[in-house]
TrEMBL record:
Classification lineage: Bacteria, Pseudomonadati, Pseudomonadota, Betaproteobacteria, Burkholderiales
PROSITE patterns according to UniProt: PROKAR_LIPOPROTEIN
Name of the protein: Lipoprotein
Signal sequence interval, chain numbering: 1-17
Keywords: Signal
Length: 156
């Protein structure tokens, strides 16, 4: 087969495009769970959420302590968040089966929702870290949050 100058140029451009795509793909950050770890919260049993967690919310200087346990009425969690120098607030929530996000409602008085949490499991954390948005209903503002397991293993 005889190559014309146009054919050679087309092949060279095609090869360059392929190399550029390959290079871009190898430079993209990979988010994969370690073998045996959940890729997202839908893969976690609810009991994996039980236990002590540490919450860091942008705009709040000190981390808060979160304790989650089995919700008595549905397949979810109930617990408390304790910020330094403040009374504990109540938490209740679950993992949304549609999108795999952890959703928590926070209440200062046990009747009205004062804040909402929506977070995604970080695949590389092996079920130990969520990041997302904490919405302060009283100020109508969103803040980024990180929720990391504080206790070594969830209770059975």
């Amino acid at each position: 087969m005889a190559f014309t100058r146009t054919t050679a140029l087309a092949l060279a451009l095609s090869a360059l495009a392929a190399l550029t795509t390959l290079s871009a793909c190898t430079q993209m950050p990979q988010r994969h769970a370690a073998p045996g770890c959940a890729e997202d919260a839908q893969d976690l049993p609810t009991r994996a959420l039980y236990g002590q967690w540490q919450a860091r919310i942008d705009g709040q200087i000190e981390p808060a302590r979160v304790e989650l346990r089995r919700h008595p009425e549905y397949d979810g969690v109930r617990g408390t968040i304790t910020r330094p120098g403040k009374a504990p607030a109540l938490l209740a929530g679950d993992v949304d089966p549609a999108d795999g996000k952890l959703t928590l409602d926070e209440s200062q008085d046990g009747r009205s929702i004062s804040a909402s949490w929506i977070g995604a499991l970080q695949a590389e954390s092996c079920g130990r870290k969520f990041t997302g948005t904490w919405h302060d209903n009283t100020a109508d503002k969103d803040h980024a949050f990180t929720l990391e397991r504080a206790s070594p293993n969830p209770p059975k």
